Amino acid sequence: MEQMPILLFRSLVSRSPPSSISKSKPRSPIRKKAKIENSSRGDRATMEVLPPAEILPTLAEMKARTPKPMRIAYAIRYGRLPASAAAGREDVARCVAALARTYEPDMDDLMEFPEVALKLQPGSCYLRDHDEDAHFIRADPGVIGVADGVGSWRAKGVDAAAFSRALMANARAQVDSAVPGTPVCPYKLLERAYEQTVAASTPGSSTAVIVSLSGRVLRWAYVGDSGFALFRRGRMVHRSQPQQASFNCPYQLGAWGNKVGEAAVGQIAVKDGDVLVVGSDGLFDNLFDSAIQQIVRMCGELKFSPKMVADILAGNAYCNARSNQDSPFSAASRQQQGTSFTGGKQDDITVVVAYIVS
Ligand SMILES: [Mn+2]
User: Fold this and answer.
1) Which domain holds residue 23?
2) Are residues 88 and 119 in the same domain?
3) Does residue 69 contact residue 91 with C-beta atoms inside 8 Å?
4) What does the pLDDT look like over 164-213, one tens digit per residue?
5) Does the global pTM surpass 0.90?
6) Ligand 1 centre and the CA of 328: distance in Å?
7) Which of 73, 118, 133, 282 has the fewest CB atoms within 10 Å, i.e. the most exposed one?
8) 1 in any annotated domain
9) Is residue 127 one of the residues assigned to a domain?
10) Contact 323, 49 (CB under 8 A)
11) Where is the composition biased (Basic residues) (predicted)?
12) How far is the CA of 348 from the centre of ligand 1 (A)?
């Protein structure tokens, strides 16, 4: 059976609201090492992961805004209630049907270039672990950047956040000093920001993604596993493919790292109503694409703001990182190195969600 993102499940299906979880009896702190060592024994199956305090208001609002028939429908879909719970409830049956609906992206739309310019309506959530991610958002002229400082510098006594922060600060400053109305080329922006960051002898290294919207075209440049996904009518229509040298070792920008010339670049025509999700690997290593899509779809149906979507995505990634559920990280490790652990990757989680609107 399809797995429901933990927080959605708890928030919508359980009787107690998420905010009451923190009132339950105290639990021992969860450490990453212990998690990986114990995970194969399955003894964390009933472990409860507390949602991060930052997103509790969003979870409470999500619960308040989700109609009861829809909550029952989710409980049926994910096996918490029998299908018979919809008997005689036309409202519940309608919600069950809505959840089962298949969304077909209209691929012809990808080639369409109508005249009206679109803009970004953004919101973000940053849940810190070592606080080495950095990001910036400029709704006008429509630029989003996310960078993730490579943590292994920490062991060498280097500030692992230095490169990601300087890279994003330099990129943001470039955007802010540009002549208004000038379209932003993500590759050139990343290149200049990188050159400035290296010229200042900034230590460390970082993965990075920059996306820009001008007119009706979304453009991108990225190095490593900071990435993005684009959704149309509830369906993922594009997803960046992480660049990595080996398992858990992404391409990275730095004085001695990969160069901007190795960046993946591209563009895609977008439509009014599309949803863009940009994030660090703290998001993409902890939530499968299917779960991200499910959350984007549900939040769209409930008319949530981009900020709420970002909170819910980040909150689910946070809980998955600390759970014993399989994750893209554990699945990739199994595939690439034959390991058997399940669970996610405890990490900084940066999520920027932007609605593309006219
Ligand atoms: Mn990371």
Assistant:
1) 6-100
2) no
3) yes
4) 999 999 999 999 999 988 899 999 999 999 999 999 999 999 999 999 99
5) no
6) 13
7) 118
8) no
9) yes
10) yes
11) 24-34
12) 6
